[in-house]
Amino acid sequence: MRNHDAEPSASMHQRAELFAGLHRRGDPLLLANAWDVASAVAIASAGAQAIATTSAGVAWSLGVPDGADFGADRAAAVIRRIAAAVTVPVSADIEAGYGESPGTVAATLAAVVRAGAVGVNIEDQRDQSSLFEPGEQAERLAAARAAAAGIPVWINARTDVFLCGSYSSTSAGVAAALRRAAQYAAAGADSLFVPGLTDLAAIAELAAGPLPVAVMAWPGAATVAELTTAGVVRISLGSAIAQAAYGLAARAATELFTTGTYDSNTNGFSYTDMNNTLQNASVTREEAPAR
Q: For the domain 10-287, what is the CATH code?
């Protein structure tokens, strides 16, 4: 069984290099984000090339709201369990690093890498209404890069200029994102993540900038084909699958309590398939070589 608290070894390098190689213009990495072992294993069984967590889904699964002081230890514990259960590379959503100082961000990154992550998301949102200054965030990203200790961890630098920035137009937001991208690239980031941006022309403009671009998709957003043409290297679903799963739980319960029927429960994993999928993951865990 892999010891995810051991020092990183060559296999971590290999996983990190594999994960990095999945970020390609013209053939972007598609991530259906997971929030626990069962969701990760189910997503992997569908053919995922990698698993990325959603901080919102992880928090909800543990009974706390997204954006609460979730903490590096709990984030690392989830990553450790997921990384032990799947054979594909794993990337951790560590929000803003669970602290403001570069040292705290570095410690968080080191913790999730020890747990088995070969990629991270680090956002520049300080709180619900403000961002770290670009120079501040660059220092935080540089500290994270140094903490990777030679492992080529893919740092997906998330900017929330389109979620909480006060810009008069999309073009002003793009200009702000490009300024941040230049500083984040110099600090060691590998890609720029721009959740909230839907304009394909603006996405293409960013994709021609200093960093490869990652985007978030949801029902009604541009298709994978359209985003591929715009030049993105990574498309993720964020918390959407977790939201759909919890929405199904509420709908199925409401149906039971009101009409006394059970139609909401159709099209799920069968009991046997879910057990077999998790059993296969357990076998993989037991047979996996030490890192």
A: 3.20.20.60
Contact partners, residue 272, CB within 8 Å, separation at least 6? none
Q: Cβ contacts of residue 27 below 8 Å, gap of 6+?
A: 228
Residue 65 Ramachandran class (φ > 0 left, ψ -120 to 50 alpha, else beta): beta
Percent of the chain with pLDDT strictly greater than 90: 84
Contact in structure between 53 and 79 (CB atoms under 8 Å): yes
Contacts of 268 (CB under 8 A, 6+ apart): none
- Residue 286's pLDDT is 53
How do residues 30-54 score in pLDDT, each as one tens digit? 999 999 999 999 999 999 999 999 9
DSSP the chain: ---TTSPP-HHHHHHHHHHHHT--TTS-EEE--BSSHHHHHHHHHTT-S-EEB-HHHHHHHTT--TTS---HHHHHHHHHHHHHH-SS-EEEE-TT-SSSSHHHHHHHHHHHHHTT-SEEEEE-EEETTEE--HHHHHHHHHHHHHHTTT---EEEEE--HHHH---SSHHHHHHHHHHHHHHHHHHT--EEE-TT---HHHHHHHHTSSS-EEEE--TTSPPHHHHHHHT-SEEE-TTHHHHHHHHHHHHHHHHHHHT---GGGTTSPPHHHHHHHHHHHHHHHHHPPP-
Nearest to 205 by CA among 215, 216, 190: 215
What Å distances lie between residue 222 and 28, 189, 196, 203, CA to CA? Answer: 14, 25, 12, 11
- Could you report the per-residue pLDDT of 256-275, keeping only the tens digit for each? 999 999 999 999 999 999 99
- Confidence (pTM): 0.92
